[in-house]
Design brief:
Distance between the termini: 43 Å
CATH superfamily of the largest domain: FAD/NAD(P)-binding domain
CATH architecture of the largest domain: 3-Layer(bba) Sandwich
Protein name: Rab GDP dissociation inhibitor
Function: Regulates the GDP/GTP exchange reaction of most RAB proteins by inhibiting the dissociation of GDP from them, and the subsequent binding of GTP.
Number of strands: 16
Shape: globular
Helix content: 25-40%
GO molecular function, one term: GTPase activator activity
InterPro entries: FAD/NAD-bd_sf, GDP_dissociation_inhibitor, RabGDI
Number of domains: 2
Family: Belongs to the Rab GDI family.
């Protein structure tokens, strides 16, 4: 460790690993360190299962038969899915990191409607015709809406149909096509993936882009617009870590970070115990420099309902007593190595 580096990266979250990978590819000498013994930081996939129990100070984990082998579990701390045609997937392909990862399509997406029923989000025209999510006349209106969204081109006024995406609000767009409230909720939260209804009063340009991303992602691999790494989201930072290592990057996990070494007001190195690694630049996640972090805003408004969780269940899904008007669920099947067979993993 007692060497000079062009850059030192602290923390192995996705952003940090992307940075170290890009720096190494560009010929920089990089040292990448993490206080944890696993990759991923706050977005890691925890395995074995006893480590998850320990992290959240839960009662001592016992190797119960119902859990199966603990190393067959990879539990995401921040459960998310990748849009098949989204920017992150494009970045993975562009950098070649897909060589180190394996993905599977998500088994299905579902929405819960007030009244106690869960409906599968249609993945093709046949499913759409058979779905009881909408009535036959509403399906026709919704189809006309989707055709408009797919054909809309902000640079071609002929495709606007009296809709200016910089002026017309989301609510006005739904009203123009005669969509009812249930269909609007479904579109905004299950397709466009908005967390709240504030978008309804905002220009509809972003709404159109989100729905097109969903549609383009669905068309790319079929059946689902979502991809998920076979062994959990923690595979993503590890993929970029492998890229960095191939180009000479050095990695140290479970390494204490005791001090950022400063000279004349500039960082010149990192100390771990009695060892000091010197460098020209340091990149780190905020947890390594809490005294230098400044909160400049929030990603969530005061009215946002953060109803987002990962549910791991052994029994088939049933129509439970969910509260609220709508929920959006996605399901991982046994083809994903994130949990034991006969268990299902759902993100809500």
């Amino acid at each position: 460790m007692d060497e000079d580096y062009d850059a030192i990266v602290l923390g192995t979250g996705l952003k940090e690993c992307i940075l170290s990978g890009m720096l190494s590819v560009s010929g920089k000498k990089v040292l990448h360190m993490d206080r944890n013994k696993y990759y991923g930081g706050e977005s890691a996939s925890i395995t074995p299962l006893e480590d998850l129990f320990s992290k959240f100070n839960m009662p001592a984990f016992q190797q119960a038969d119902e859990y199966g082998r603990s190393r067959d579990w990879n539990v995401d701390l921040i459960p998310k899915f990748l849009m098949a045609n989204g920017q992150l997937v494009k970045l993975l392909i562009h950098t070649g990191v897909t060589r180190y990862l394996e993905f599977k399509s998500v088994e299905g997406s579902y929405v819960y409607k007030s009244g106690g029923k869960i409906y599968k989000v249609p993945a093709d025209e046949k499913e759409a015709l058979q779905s009881s999510l909408m009535g036959i006349f509403e399906k026709r209106r919704f189809r006309n809406f989707l055709v408009f969204v797919q054909d809309y081109n902000v640079d071609d006024p002929k495709t606007w149909k009296d809709v200016d995406s910089n002026v017309t609000t989301g609510a006005q767009l739904y009203e123009k096509f005669g969509l009812d409230k249930d269909t609007a909720d479904f579109t905004g939260h299950a397709l466009a993936l908005y967390r709240d209804d504030e978008y309804l009063s905002q220009p509809c340009g972003d709404l159109i882009k989100r729905i097109r991303l969903y549609s383009d992602s669905l068309a790319r691999y079929g059946k689902s617009p979502y991809l998920y790494p076979l062994y959990g989201l923690g595979e993503l930072p590890q993929g970029f870590a492998r890229l960095s290592a191939i180009y000479g990057g050095t990695y140290m996990l479970d390494k204490a970070i005791d001090e950022l070494v400063m000279e004349d007001g500039r960082v010149v190195g990192v100390r771990s115990g009695s060892e000091v690694a010197r460098c020209k630049q340091v990149y780190c996640d905020p947890s390594y420099v809490p005294d230098r972090v400044k909160k400049v805003g929030s990603s969530f408004g005061p009215s946002t309902n953060l109803g987002n969780c990962r549910v791991i269940s052994k029994h088939p899904e049933k129509s439970g007593n969910c509260r609220g008007n709508s929920k959006h669920l996605e399901k991982l099947g046994n083809c994903h190595a994130s949990h034991q067979e006969n268990w299902s993993s759902q993100r809500t």
